[in-house]
């Protein structure tokens, strides 16, 4: 028979962001096992498995609260032995911004008690400054959305020591537009559109 593995601690805790995400845990068992959760915002890819090593994926929904984190649990049981994983999901981004598809500039106030940095995860967003030593006002410049079919998103991540805050920006899709102008360099007209 397969030897029993060294048992892990009866409980473990993981910390996840407030955004919807996936978490994979490794189940090592010498017999068949079952898994379950009583939290509606956590769903499991599988609720049972056989002896051996299995990857169990959990899908977490967005935390709708911008003020409170939340905790859920996943329990795995094998032949009367249980192990519990506590998932601490952070609150949702406290700040969100919505921009029209035409591009814009927005001032953002940063309040910090030490050196800080900020970075954007999309190249259509530029920052007037990406670091500072104390509180400051930075200007976010957003290029126009070239698509009339889809919104697009960017996350700004602010760091000060071990503290991390995020700002989520959603830029709406551009309104369908078309322009016709005379092409003076040749005979004819130039038609410009941002959609089909």
Please write out the topology:
Layout: E1 11-16, E2 21-29, E3 33-36, E4 42-44, E5 48-49, E6 52-60, E7 70-78, E8 81-89, E9 95-99, E10 104-110, E11 116-120, E12 125-127, E13 131-132, E14 136-142, E15 152-160, E16 163-171, E17 178-182, E18 189-193
Parallel strand pairs: 1-8, 9-16
Antiparallel strand pairs: 2-6, 3-5, 3-7, 4-6, 7-8, 10-14, 11-13, 11-15, 12-14, 15-16, 17-18
Characterize this entry briefly.
Helices cover 0% and strands 55% of the residues. It has strands at 11-16, 21-29, 33-36, 42-44, 48-49, 52-60, 70-78, 81-89, 95-99, 104-110, 116-120, 125-127, 131-132, 136-142, 152-160, 163-171, 178-182, 189-193.
Q: Can you describe what's shown?
A:
This protein has strands at residues 11-16, 21-29, 33-36, 42-44, 48-49, 52-60, 70-78, 81-89, 95-99, 104-110, 116-120, 125-127, 131-132, 136-142, 152-160, 163-171, 178-182, 189-193. The chain is mainly beta and 196 residues long. The strands form five sheets. It has a five-stranded mixed beta sheet, with no helix packed on it. Strands 9-16-15-11-13 form a five-stranded mixed beta sheet, with no helix packed on it. Strands 2-6-4 form a three-stranded antiparallel beta sheet, with no helix packed on it. A hairpin with a 6-residue loop joins strand 17 and strand 18 (189-193). It starts with 10 loop residues before the first strand and ends with a strand.
């Amino acid at each position: 028979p397969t030897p029993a593995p060294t048992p892990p601690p009866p409980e473990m805790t993981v910390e996840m962001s407030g955004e919807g995400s996936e978490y994979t845990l490794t189940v090592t068992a010498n017999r068949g096992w079952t898994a379950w959760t009583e939290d509606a915002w956590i769903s499991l890819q599988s609720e049972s498995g056989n002896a051996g090593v299995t990857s169990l994926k959990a899908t977490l929904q967005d935390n709708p609260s911008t003020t409170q984190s939340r905790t859920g649990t996943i329990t795995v049981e094998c032949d009367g032995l249980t192990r519990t994983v506590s998932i601490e999901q952070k609150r949702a981004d406290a700040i969100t911004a919505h921009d029209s598809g035409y591009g814009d500039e927005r001032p953002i106030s940063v309040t910090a008690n030490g050196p800080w940095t900020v970075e954007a995860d999309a190249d259509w967003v530029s920052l007037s400054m990406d670091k500072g030593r104390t509180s400051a006002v930075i200007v976010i410049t957003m290029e126009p959305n070239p698509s009339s079919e889809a919104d697009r998103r960017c996350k700004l991540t602010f760091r000060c020591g071990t503290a991390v805050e995020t700002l989520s920006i959603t830029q709406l899709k551009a309104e369908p537009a078309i322009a016709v102008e005379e092409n003076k360099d040749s005979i004819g007209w130039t038609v410009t559109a941002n959609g089909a």
